[in-house]
Design goal:
Pfam families: STAS. Keywords: Phosphoprotein. The chain has 113 residues and is an alpha/beta fold. Helix content is 39%, strand content 33%. It is built from four helices and five strands, in the order ββαβαβαβα. The protein has a five-stranded mixed β-sheet with strand order 1-2-3-4-5. Helix 1 packs parallel to helix 2. The longest helix is centred in the middle third of the chain and has 15 residues. The mean pLDDT is 96.
């Protein structure tokens, strides 16, 4: 399966809607998108993972890298996910302590952290 990406502005946040699989083959596409957004001055990102069917360690690495990039600019990266199989990966790896994870884009956009 391929990876689909789209972005939109919601207030002062940029929402990156991700669909498909984030794995060793597709993760570079997501990395490029996050780097491009940061280079364009978009430092408050919401990654909507509702349409993600699969996530591997390469995908996790891309998300962590994106978080480091936005934090270098006093920014934030929030995740939207309520799929148990994907949330389990974040719990097992301890990344629930690193990423703010929300159940909807609205919650993520309105949150203050």
């Amino acid at each position: 399966m391929d990876l689909s990406l789209s972005t939109r502005a919601v207030g002062d946040r940029t929402v990156v809607e991700v669909g498909g699989e984030i794995d060793v083959y597709t993760a570079p596409k997501l990395r490029e998108q996050l780097v491009e957004l940061v280079n364009d001055g978009k430092y408050h990102l919401v990654v909507d993972m509702e349409g993600v069917d699969f996530l591997d360690s390469t995908g996790l690495g891309v998300l962590v890298g994106g978080l480091k990039r936005v934090r270098a600019h006093e920014g934030s990266l929030r995740l939207v996910c309520n799929q148990e199989r994907i949330l389990k990966i974040f719990r097992i790896t301890g990344l629930t302590k690193v990423f703010p994870i929300h159940t909807s884009v609205d919650d993520a956009v309105q949150a203050t952290d």
